Amino acid sequence: MSWTGKILRVNLTEGTWADEDLNMDWAMQYLGQRGLGTKYLVEEVDPKTDPLSPENKLIFATGPLTGTGASTSARYSVITKSPLTNCVACSNSGGYFGPEIKYCGYDMIIFEGKSPKPVYFLMIDDHIELVDAEDLWGKSVWEVDEAIKDAHQEPLLHIAAIGHPAEYGALISAVVNDGHRAAGRSGVGTVMGSKNLKALAVHGTRGLKVKDPEAFAQAVEAAKKVLAENAVTGEALPTYGTQVLMNIINEIGALPTRNARDVQFEGANEISGEAMHRPRRSDGRPNLVTNQGCFGCTIACGRVSKLDVTIPCVKPEDKEKYDIASGGVEYENAWALGADTGVDDLEALTYCNYRCNEHALDPISVGATIAAAMELYDIGALTKETTGGIELKFGSAEALCRAVDAICEGTDFGKDLAMGSKRLCEKYGHPELSMTVKGQEFPAYDPRGIQGMGLTYATSNRGACHLRSYTVASEVLGIPEKTDPLATEGKAALVKAFQDATAAVDSTGLCIFTTFAWTLEDIAPQVDAACEGEWTVEKLLEVGERIWNMERKFNLDAGITPEEDTLPKRILKEAAKTGPAKGLVNGLDRMLPEYYELRGWTPEGYPKPETLERFGLA
User: Fold this and answer.
1) 3-class state of residue 158 by DSSP
2) How many CB atoms lie within 10 A of CB 408?
3) Domain ranges of the chain
4) What are the residue ranges in the chain where pLDDT is below 70?
5) In terms of CATH architecture, what is 6-203?
6) Could you report the per-residue pLDDT of 162-177, keeping only the tens digit for each?
7) pTM for this structure?
8) C-alpha 283 chain-centroid distance
């Protein structure tokens, strides 16, 4: 129940596909989406595989609650081996695309091999087809969306696509569905491009069954009530989205600024959630048009903005194209494109975010890489000759927009940026200026001002990531209990608890943002009423811990060493200059040994045999 019990396996090399029964033994151990999709990946892909070779696989996986109507039951994940990090990649997205996979009768779609020519995958209930996409190659996500719907005269199709950067091998490419929802991180779009797969277009009309409909309805309604009555999920997120954090994180001195040279940004208020509500001088209209929810969502944290097309970065010939209401900046995007580059122009950030959605780019890696490039320019390692004429100075909105355009268009310098900051900084002789872990740019929380996030980044199985262990909830917001953001004591246990719980939530088909209000006590009854078997809080935590160890083992087998459980030198050696964390560096050396011990790993960071045996991973 709730699982459809079927997967679809698509051989792109041969142009064939076939149904397959879902491995229910694995479903009982890994639940779905992140956990179950990753289990298929690690069983079928050699960890040493080149991520851009046909031997890598690309998995679109839903959770058992995806499409059920539970609040936030929109989620799906794209799972593969990352070309950016060489680690396991699992990028989560919302919108309306994920439920459509379930409504066609499948829990996941596994793409294998490489098509000899560009194609897109079409699935409308029982009708499945690989359609020639040579005329779509080189086109944007928005153009592909319109063209496919027109070609099939089916406005109800939901489409996930890549842009031109993924085609030319940009390692920071995303998969964008529904125009502006993204499976954003780790280069999953790059793998899709390497397979000559331009898009998936899906629409289904089948219903879903749950184990106990009455108990499920009761659990869902009770959980929705908790979300509605919570200050974060019922008020702050609907009003300001994740952008509610901009001024908060800046005030506590944990907003990485100018490539993490600083921890506070003097222009934060100009690019904040509050700023999106203010009338702008040019036309008296605010940047924000409305909030928006994904399928089944009662939080509606999404931003829909209207760009001021009179700004200089919008070319005259593009004004009509961008004179639309589309995905507005959220906290991570606004930070990466704004504070990290020193740019406080909200309209420029909105333009750059439009471009990232239009061409399926990860805005966190885009902004952070441009910030690193700005520092390279500042010290003379990059010049106007190497940037293609861009005067790449911190704080320049023009430079930011031109750099984003360069990535979208694939200019010589754009392709340098598209490698991500690790490879960019190595190429130009200053690897220490890349604010990455395992090759992935860290997000909008400075680990000197929020100590637990340093351990979170260092140990994340997909490279630096906030969504694998959001200790900000505890260290800043006091959820589920308040801890001191400047202390290292107790953070190992906190990070492990967040990692295990998050892995479980990511496997349900629900959104992690619910956990601002929900605990697993709210989630377990929904899973238990929907799914075969018994699903308690303890069972979900066991699933989460099993997933974490499975991902760790895959990475180790791929050649990722525990020595890479570290942070950039700047974070470990250069103290914060201002704010509450002034004078502090991150105390990773104090947290990491305790974390390894709590995980049941050796002091060197390898899972002990008994730990692997306990989770069936030996």
Assistant:
1) strand
2) 23
3) 6-203, 257-434, 447-614
4) none
5) 4-Layer Sandwich (3.60)
6) 999 999 999 999 999 9
7) 0.98
8) 34
